[in-house]
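Practice record 12: protein with adenosine-5'-diphosphate.
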Amino acid sequence: MIKFDQVTKKYKDDFVALEDISLEIKEGEFVSIVGQSGAGKSTLLRLVYAEEMPTAGAVYFNEKSLDSISRRKLPFHRRNIGTVFQDFKLLPKKTAFENVAYALEACGAPKNEILEDVPQILEIVGLGEKMEKFPHELSGGEQQRVAMARALIHKPLVIVADEPTGNLDPVSSAEIVELLLKINNLGTTVLLASHDKDIVNKAAKRVVVLERGKIIADDAKGKYKIS
Ligand code: ADP
């Protein structure tokens, strides 16, 4: 479903963030991308949702090179991919319901669809009872669940989570990983970037280890061994 073919990504001043990455991710997989800060994890994920383009090589999504998608059509590609970040990026003056609904309104969804889908997805992430709460009335873990609901509302094929537990305590972090596993069980491909050993070991799925822009390990049922 996602394929990196000899991908190198350089930023300004020829700084090499990723070097010669070849990687295949199949539909329905759960892949943890691990490595120290600066290893290139975020860059790899940004290439998947086409926020960045490779300097060399190509990234394919369902056999289509992302390079070949016109700027006008990129939003359609991005709709296949739900994103979750360390900072939850919620709108502070909107309730949990409104934060998720907003993502649907923005692409012109009809009201009845919004009224049906939003509570359903908030129920899935365990926030059925807290739909009318504002972000400041929710814990960090709950706010991240709202962000997950928002990422899922377009029924994406892939969820890309970049350090989703970076601002959370260990208990909330474990709950977020459980939620990612649940979403994966429902059929969504999951790409999780994290430098948190406990989180990755809890997922107990395929682990790709990055070090200074290179893949140094790729284990099917890996554990994050770097201390
Ligand atoms: P990680 O997510 O593993 O912490 P990143 O992908 O964020 O790593 O960064 C990899 C390297 O690329 C880092 O050294 C970082 O400083 C550099 N980098 C990331 N984004 C940019 C950018 N927009 N411009 C220049 N350098 C960047």
